[in-house]
Write a structure and sequence with these properties.
By secondary structure, this protein is of the alpha/beta class. It is built from 18 helices and 13 strands. 46% of the residues lie in helices and 12% in strands. Helix 12 links the parallel strand 9 and strand 10. It is globular. The structure holds uridine-5'-diphosphate (UDP). It is an enzyme of class 2 (transferase).
Length: 477
């Protein structure tokens, strides 16, 4: 029997950052000549097609297809962070039978395409590993969270056994003893599931546990990082999954490969919201490294009090800022339109507000000197690539561990962690942008150079991607 031609099914978590990362990976696979199917939810596919040129961009790859499924939620559901748990379980109910069907059929679309030979689901879709094993199709999860958080997840069973979780007492500065590689570093307040009361009833902790249990049963693990950033943690993660491919930073990797092949690096966007390019025009009129970019990603929300503390801290610092105020940034409110309008009236000459920005371009702009971020993993990687120091306001999950690493391990910024106060914000902004600017800039630029080396010819991520593509080609049925 002929060996089937390699055909990868990519299945991202139905939110902005994993969609970004998986589309980058999809394009890298297309460049390597693989057949690729990208499984998106109907809801996100509609948004993606409305706000991006993704359809025409991928048209140049004849072996690429989008496929869509329902996420199981009614159209009017806002799918914000509050409904995240609901979204994950309703999607699971639709995805499980879909995956079984597509993996059992002899062609992926029932007519023309070769069968799927490898599934790359988000790491959170632990059930895909079992379905693949049951049917005999290899599964290589892509964990789109930060590797430092993934390592904490992998240590959860040990923490439970050592009775370090659930936490006893209220001291959030107490250090964990049973997270190898993070002794003396990881405090309770840095734990992904903040103030964890009971791991057995916390739904997100339960999903994380199922995810880590599935890792040794998978055929490998993909991470969006590079050896010079996360080498020691990657060694620890490899004790659970030997075949761990560190192929990041993915967005830079893709740009580098396109340049290598002399293909146009189009103004590619994978945004589910409309990007406001007036932010770039505003930046064009600002002096070099004079602006701090403020964004809390696609899901995190802030209370009205927190937004006001950030606003006053930024205004009082005297530093110019560009702030992404998503329409659903204000916690518990449908829209923050009026509130944002009133705020922006107060500081027109030094502040600019948009509801969604072309973030990669913003961070690459010479007027940007720093990033006030929620420490989402994509934002962190994008900032590292551009050598921009960060102030971290982590909200939940991997952001809490990542922000600790930004401040204490990589030393490319400061971690606010839990105290949202205008005086602290003012001081940190001045510290990052003026007082200790040279020091932060030096360490951020050093990491940026290492990131670039990693995806260049012969670099660690370059080699790991080659190895992943070769392995995917070998994996048949
Ligand atoms: N992003 C963007 N424009 C914005 C805000 C965010 O394009 O105004 C992108 C950003 O470049 C990143 C992603 O959205 O790739 C956010 O991912 P991250 O992991 O940082 O945070 P999450 O949204 O998952 O919390």
């Amino acid at each position: 029997m002929d060996h089937p031609s390699p055909h990868v099914l990519l299945f991202p978590l139905p939110i902005q950052s994993p969609i970004n990362s998986m589309l980058h990976l999809a394009e890298l696979f297309c460049l390597a000549g693989l057949q690729v199917t990208f499984l998106n939810t109907n809801h996100n596919q509609k948004l993606l097609l409305r706000h991006t040129n993704v359809e025409s961009r991928f048209r140049q790859y004849p072996r690429f297809r989008f496929r869509t499924i329902s996420d199981g939620l009614p159209e009017e559901n806002p799918r914000s962070s509050v409904q995240f748990g609901e979204l994950i379980s309703s999607l699971q109910a639709v995805a499980e039978p879909f995956l079984r069907e597509i993996l059992l059929s002899s062609s992926s679309d029932g007519v023309t395409e070769p069968p799927v030979t490898c599934v790359i689901p988000d790491g959170l879709f632990y059930y895909a590993v079992d379905i693949g094993n049951e049917i005999g199709v290899p599964v290589i999860p892509f964990d789109t969270i930060s590797p430092c958080c993934l390592w904490v997840y992998l240590c959860i069973p040990k923490l439970i056994q050592a009775e370090e979780i659930p936490f006893k007492g209220n001291d959030l500065d107490a250090l964990f003893e049973n997270v190898a590689g993070m002794q003396g570093l990881l405090r309770r307040r840095d734990f992904p599931f903040y103030r964890l009361i009971d791991y057995a009833t916390d739904p997100y902790c339960q999903i994380a546990l199922k995810e880590v249990e599935s890792i040794p049963r998978s055929n490998g693990l993909i991470l969006n990082t590079f050896e010079d950033l996360d080498g020691p943690l990657l060694s620890l993660i490899r004790s659970h999954c030997q075949q761990t491919y560190a192929i990041g930073p993915l967005h830079l990797h893709l740009k580098t490969k396109l340049a290598e092949k002399r293909m146009p690096i189009s103004a590619s966007s994978n945004s589910l919201w409309e990007e406001d390019h007036s932010s770039i025009q505003w930046l064009d009129a600002q002096p070099i490294e004079s602006v701090i970019y403020v964004s809390f990603g696609s899901m995190a929300t802030l209370s009205k009090e927190e937004i006001l503390e950030f606003w006053h801290g930024l205004v009082n610092s005297g530093i110019r800022f560009l702030w992404v105020m998503r329409s659903n940034l204000l916690r518990g409110e449908e829209s923050n339109h009026q509130f944002v309008k009133e705020l922006s009236e107060g500081c027109k000459e030094r502040a600019y507000i948009v509801s969604w920005a072309p973030q990669e371009k913003v961070l690459a702009h010479s007027a940007i000197g720093g990033f006030l971020t929620h420490s989402g993993w994509n934002s962190t990687m994008e900032s590292i690539v551009q050598g921009k120091p960060m102030i971290c306001w982590a909200v939940y999950v991997d952001q809490r561990v990542t922000s600790r690493f930004v401040g204490e391990v990589w030393k490319i910024g400061v971690d606010m962690k839990d105290i949202c106060d205008r005086y602290i914000i003012e001081k940190m902004v001045k510290d990052l942008m003026v007082t200790n600017r040279d020091e932060f800039k030096k360490s951020a630029e050093k990491l940026s150079n290492l990131a670039k080396e990693s995806v260049g010819d012969g670099g660690s991520s370059y080699n790991a991607l080659q190895c992943l593509v070769d392995d995917v080609k070998k994996l048949g049925r």
